[in-house]
Amino acid sequence: MATIVFFPEGAHGPTNNCAGIGAVLRERGHRVMFIVEESFAGTLEARGFEERLMRLGPPPEQEEAPGQFWIDFIRDTAPVFRKPTIEQLGEFIAPTFEALCDGARFVHDRLLEIIDELAPDVIVEDNVVSFPALAASGRRWVRIVSCNPLELPDPDLAPVFSGYPEADRSGWQAFADEFRRTHADLHASFDEFRRAAGAPPLPGLEFMDTSPFLNLYGYPDEVDYRRSRPLDSSWHNVQTSVRASEPWELPEQLRGGSGALLYLSLGSLGSADVGLMQRLVDILGATAHRVIVSKGPLAEQIRLHDNMCGEGYLPQPAILPQVDLVITHGGNNTTCEALHHGKPMVVLPIFWDQYDNAQRIHETGLGVRLSTYECTAEQLTRAVDGLLADAALRARLAAMARRLQNSSGTVVAADLIERLA
């Protein structure tokens, strides 16, 4: 029996991704533990995992909800999301990286304590910035990329966070130059901290290092990028990593309706923008479709219509097989899970790699990207109805789903981690 420690970012997407893989390893008899922020205390324990708690900053004066730090951050930063991605670099992306780097500094000593206490055979990290305690510990560790794979740069691919098309390079250099201008000093200071902590230097302008042991990402071949510099043999694409969840049944009042069944989710962070959520709910409430709404952490502030049902938290993996179409922010988990179940998407990106996923789904013809804050009710409903009427797309997605469902990405990931342990 091996001791395997998961260390996901303090957000529901990476945490759920790791929990799915961890469940497979636990069933095989391994000791599986999670390092989680204090605001997530008990959430992994409720799934049967041991927890070790840490903080990325000083404790608040009042009790936090899980991921409260990022809920507050998104709420306060929401006006920036209406700006072009190149303007978001300085006003959102850089401050986010700065907050994450500050967290890595703050938690460093606590991480060393936890690693020494648990003496893991393998540490599995799913973060977007490096935590040098892992690399400096001398233990085997795994990097999981649960964001869009543009996080792994290539000169023939659009810059990460840009949402720029693959076929049009006209804006690539300007975006890369702005990223350097807004991030170079932060990267240099964070790299200095890493070296002082005993970790190797970071590559280029990347904030996350590559494991010398094992690296995983999930993006179906049908949408994955063609690289001019192939990833080395430590990298494995597990295609999709869809966790098991509790069963879910459609409420009686929405069964047997004439309209299509839609699923609306902006993720645990995007749904913190209550104004945006309510606008989408109101538009869909005027259609003949039935809608399942994942309301998010501020659920009590969102008012649903008679053709809808929803809760603050819903077991997404159990819902997706039942629906006809997904309206999503383009988070990597939702994007890949929707493809796993063969569902077309309307993608409304808000921040981070969501623009990249939205563009990739759009340019591969598997869905429609819309301007999140500017699209009209007519544009949204036209996109939904157009995708629902596309029989050729349904057949293409069904074939993709059959392929993806023939191999479990969580099992493939667990196999690779187990082999390393």
Brief summary:
This protein has 421 residues and is an alpha/beta fold. The chain contains 13 helices and 13 strands.
Largest sheet descriptor? 7 strands, parallel
Number of DSSP-assigned strands: 13
Estimated radius of gyration: 21 Å
Query: Which secondary-structure class do the elements indicate?
Result: alpha/beta
Which regions have little confidence, pLDDT < 50, spanning 5+ residues? Answer: none
N-to-C series of helices and strands: EHEEHHEHEHEEEHHEEHEHEHEHHH
**Oligomeric state of the chains in view:** single chain
**Portion of residues within helices:** 25-40%
Principal-axis shape? globular
Fold and architecture overview:
There is one protein chain. With 421 residues, the chain is of the alpha/beta class. The protein has helices at 12-27, 68-77, 85-118, 132-136, 172-196, 267-270, 274-285, 316-319, 332-340, 354-363, 377-388, 391-405, 409-420; strands at residues 3-8, 31-37, 50-54, 122-126, 140-145, 214-217, 235-237, 261-265, 290-294, 308-311, 325-328, 345-347, 367-369. The strands form 2 sheets. It has a 7-stranded parallel sheet, with helices on both faces. Strands 10-9-8-11-12-13 form a 6-stranded parallel sheet, with helices on both faces. Strand 12, helix 10 and strand 13 form a beta-alpha-beta unit. The longest helix is centred in the N-terminal third of the chain and has 34 residues, at 85-118.
